[in-house]
Amino acid sequence: MTARKLTGIVHRLLQLVFLGLVITHALLDLGYPWWWNFGPLALAQAVLIVGRRRWSGAPDSPRAAREPVEVVPPVTGRWSALNSPADRTPSHGTHAYGQTFAIDVVAEPEPGARPCFRMLWPLARRNSAFPAFGAPLLAVADATVVRATDAQRDHLSRTSLPALLYLTFLEEAVRALFGVKRIVGNHVVLDLGEGTYAMYAHVQRGSLAVREGDRVRAGQTLARCGNSGNSTEPHLHFQLMDGPDPDTARGIPFTWRGIGVPRNREIFEAPATASQPT
């Protein structure tokens, strides 16, 4: 077990200890001030900060500084970029899970086709309301499938203010306690060679078209876009990293052939490849 993996396990265990103490203190008189319960939580944060910076993709890491890897786009059609590394890194506010240079994309086949964010109502929407749901996800290069899972359910959208607060302050924390698989949801990881791996997160349940060990060609359909894991709406979270395990990998910058790296809110058109007919 690597030191980076151990960091994540210790962090989650300390969080569980904190929750156990809080629940126990609420039920029993333990004879010490309630604020002592926050000791394990503070220690967990210290472990995370020190461990992640030292082992899991600190910005001064030599691997994180490598040149962008050019690959073909993982989708086809008209899409919009969110949380793009073209605007900031780390693009999602953290180097954890190898997502320093990650990007989210949502399908925008035409203006207004994608439901917009609402303050109060509807609280959530069905996945079928979003054009990204069920869209094919394509291999970005000739590669080998090293991880492929699609057993987690696709939950409803979190596209209202109450639902977003629930996701941010409760659901996300609970998912983090159970590890990276509950964060990325159903996912596929490809080995592109030369120490580069591509991850597709939030894959639709039951949509896998490949298995671990399969060789795939650029443009081949791997699975379909879903809304599993720590996700607000059906979309693809895509990233390159230097290892197959996002819990220990560092992010690698990418560029999509013919497109580059779309900026936040930028609409881009990804053409079909030879392996993905129109």
At a glance:
The chain is built from four helices and 13 strands. It is of the alpha+beta class and 278 residues long. It folds into two domains: 53 residues; 208 residues, Distorted Sandwich (Glucose Permease (Domain IIA)), CATH 2.70.70.10.
Outline the fold blueprint.
Elements: H1 3-27, H2 39-55, E1 69-71, E2 77-82, E3 103-107, E4 136-138, E5 143-149, H3 161-177, H4 180-184, E6 187-193, E7 196-201, E8 215-216, E9 221-224, E10 236-241, E11 251-252, E12 254-256, E13 267-270
Parallel strand pairs: 1-12
Antiparallel strand pairs: 2-3, 2-13, 3-10, 4-9, 5-6, 5-8, 6-7, 7-10, 10-11
Helix pairs in contact: 1-2
Can you walk through the features of this model?
The chain is an alpha+beta fold and 278 residues long. The chain has two domains: 53 residues; 208 residues, Glucose Permease (Domain IIA), CATH 2.70.70. The chain has four helices and 13 strands. Strands 2, 3, 5, 6, 7, 8, 10, 11 and 13 form a nine-stranded antiparallel β-sheet that branches. β6 and β7 form a beta hairpin. α1 packs antiparallel against α2. The termini are far apart.
Name of the level-1 CATH class of the largest domain: Mainly Beta
* Strand percentage: 15-25%
Largest sheet: 9 strands, antiparallel
Q: So, the CATH homologous superfamily of the largest domain?
A: Glucose Permease (Domain IIA)
Mean pLDDT: 84
CATH architecture descriptor name of the largest domain: Distorted Sandwich
The low-confidence parts are 55-64
How many domains comprise the coordinates? Answer: 2
